[in-house]
Amino acid sequence: MLYIKEANFEDAEKEWRFVAAMPENENGLTNKWHRVTRDRFISEALREMINRARGIDLPDGFVPDTTLFLWNDTQIVGQFRLRHYLPATKIPGHIGYFIAKEHRGKGFATEGLRLTLEYGASIIPEDEYYMRLNKDNPASLRVMLKNGGRIVGETEDKLIVKIPKNKKNYVCKSASLQEMEEKWDYEIKLHPGQENWIIWKAEAINNFQTGRSIPYYGILKGTIICEATAVVDPGEVQNSAGMMDETTAYLCAFRTIKEYRGKGYFSRLLRFVQNDLKQKGYTKAVLGVEPDDKKNKAMYTHWGFTEFVKSAEERYPDGTVIKVEYYGRDIEN
Q1: What's the rounded Cα separation, in Å, for the pair 269 and 260?
Q2: Tell me, what's the pLDDT at 90?
Q3: Average pLDDT over residues 111-130
Q4: What is the C-alpha separation between 78 and 62, in angstroms, rounded?
Q5: In this predicted model, what pLDDT tens digit does every residue of 13-42 receive, in sequence order?
Q6: Is there a contact between 269 and 303 (Cβ–Cβ < 8 Å)?
């Protein structure tokens, strides 16, 4: 089965072997990590890929981009790179890709591009994907045309192709820094004059950038409609003693825009969160709920959070104190 995954440390060994074997430049897709050593790949290349997807430490003139590996069951067969938006100056295109030679001619490029287009539909702000390819690369042109592309122009050696963005897809994904800024500004606007939300925004972004938490968004037609956060550092969770360890994630910040509640969107996001955490090595999740919040307690019970852990108090930044009950569940695929 073909699927795409973001660059990640859990798959570092296979990612390294694939990237090191990629050519330095093929059909315009450059690879500065050709023949990179395993140690340098993990300490430099992979960290750079992950940071660039988050918009961290970008070189001047660069925009965030996500490195996606195309997997066929347990084997990496290709790599796709998705720019989150077009830069203001040089326009290289939204997507570049590479399929290993031994896997070409099997339809992997066509399906990999389809999956990347679907993945990027909730990320890029433009209405169409902009792509460029060498005129002497008819195979890539066929891949783009099969995915709804059309030739809209050319230069001396390039063809320019645009592919309409499918806005109908509902996408669940880990958030980018740009998306977090957008969502938190929306929440602050909904809660005018409430300092807690400004403080929570700063904490959330800092935890994201330092790897202490993983924010997840459900995005429909380009709009973030629901969210959840997995905090993976016990030091960032109140009352974490006896509740969290290196294999337990704390889930919080469950929010869904009102008009999309009760339609299954958040349930799909929560399944995505659990699957992602499972892949990252977590075996259990816990969450907190106020004792008198019967509606949410019933919902969490429905989602399998039935193991009572403990009761305690939490304090908001403004000094407000609330009582909380914590429940846990094993993470399943």
Answers
A1: 13
A2: 64
A3: 88
A4: 23
A5: 999 999 999 999 887 788 999 999 999 999
A6: no
- 230 is written with which tokens? 């997995």
For the segment 225-242, the average pLDDT, to the nearest whole number, is 95
- CB of 330 closer than 8 Å to CB of 282: no
CA–CA separation, 66 vs 53, rounded Å?
4
- Per DSSP, the three-state class of 176 is coil
Whole-angstrom distance, CA of residue 254 vs CA of residue 227: 6
- Domain 2-164: CATH superfamily is Gcn5-related N-acetyltransferase (GNAT) (3.40.630.30)
Q: Where along the chain do its domains lie?
A: 2-164, 170-330
Q: What are phi and psi of 298, to 5 degrees?
A: -65, -40
Strands 284-289 vs 248-256: parallel, antiparallel or unpaired: parallel
What digits encode the pLDDT tens for the residues 57-93?
888 888 999 999 999 989 999 999 999 988 877 677 9
Whether 167 shows a pLDDT value over 70: the answer reads: no
Contact 31, 97 (CB under 8 A): no
Mean of pLDDT over the chain: 91
As a whole number of angstroms, the distance between CA 333 and CA 329 comes to 13
Q: Which residues pair with 287 in a beta bridge?
A: 251, 327
Tokens of 270: 């929560």
Hey, what CATH topology would domain 170-330 get? Aminopeptidase (3.40.630)
d(CA 28, CA 26): 5
Average pLDDT of the segment spanning 313-318: 94
Q: What are the tokens at 154?
A: 């050319």
Nearest to 170 by CA among 224, 128, 116, 125: 224
Element (H, E) at 40: helix 38-40
